[in-house]
Amino acid sequence: MISRVKGTRDFLDLTLFNFIADQARAHFVRHNFTEIATPILEPMELFKRSLGAYTDVVSKEMFVIEPRGDDAEQICLRPEQTAPTIRAFIENGIQVTPWKVFTIGPMFRYERPQKGRYRQFNQINTEIVGTNSIAQDAQLIAMLDRFFHETLGINSYAILVNFLGCADDRTAYRTKLETFLKDNSAAQDLCGTCKARIETNIMRVFDCKSPKCQEILQRAPHITDNLCTPCTNEWQELQDVLPQLSVSFSFAPNLVRGLDYYNKTVFEFVSGDLGAQNAFCGGGRYELASLLGAREQLPSLGVGIGVERLMLLLEPLLNTLPLPQRPKLLAVLPLSPAQNVLAMLIADTLHAAGLAVDPLLDGGSVKSMMRSANRMGATYALIIGDEEQREGFITVKSMVDGAQEKVTQANLLAYFQK
Ligand code: HAM
Q1: What pTM, to 2 d.p., does this model score?
Q2: CA of residue 411 to ligand 1 center, whole Å
């Protein structure tokens, strides 16, 4: 047997997945977002430059395809959607901002698989490219809160928010953090990766999962205590506006979100029902455009929603969701191969009228075909034997109460339409 690749999964029933995607589409379109799609393959350089070479995603988790033939560059399977969206914005010469777009599709990260963590997973991702207003950040968080709570009926989550300031604020903060970590005797107990991060990209220490490192970092200075005046005002505005939109949030001073491109607002939606991988949605504000080749900087903001984690949250709530029902199925039973073509033609006529019909063409006894029809959940069996074929009628048998009647082929469609 050849097994699926580690960290990937087979979806044998897409009802819930498609329900989430359809609800997200409707919700985001109501908020004036347009659905776009970008390739799964992107240049490796795109992510090195935007996510940061020292992030876990770029340094450890990329699926890279080495150049071959005439290709000059490394390409990779996209690990996230923000950098590709900004690349598409620049490459397609989009002029009108704010550009509000969303995508739904697979991402790839070479992570250690566990509950809710896969190497191929799906994200619903939205970006608003070219927006300065912090009110947009509040509006985005409120839009997501309404989607999870009101549209999908999830209650068990918290919204964590932090504010990372502007580039100058972070430069000043890095020095403060370095002083804290180097002067702190407990810093000797930081793991090797964190010690290395102090030298390479110090804010990435907050990504460490080690409880010992996390304990030390609990006492680290807060970046929000070190903001310039405009950023202090924007952080205050965000904290003031969210409650006015009835969004409850918690301040999370150590939330830095694992990717280098964030600037100012960062947020995550987390749920204790998910276990260790508790974030099912995360995003924030960033400035990537000039880094990726645009002539001007374009303040932007966006979010990625993990579809598999959302599915884990929704599985216990399945019977409260208005999931689409499969249409009622009719099974057509030709009693011998001589009736196969007639069975297919009858199915054809009923399909054309929009009914769900499956002719059973694998033969067998009436009993075994009735068993198959039952297993398929058919509501009626349409039985065609020699006599039915000769006389031009069908024996229609209810799978619910076994009642049986003869219906002429000419009346069959009208019979089921009523
Ligand atoms: P992220 O936090 O890396 O952000 O991913 C967003 C969401 O994707 C996570 O909250 C989680 O639900 C899901 N996710 C991430 N990794 C995995 C995995 N290995 N298995 C299953 N689900 C996973 C981003 O990707 C940013 N690009 C979001 C963003 C958009 N920021 C601004 N715009």
Answers
A1: 0.94
A2: 55
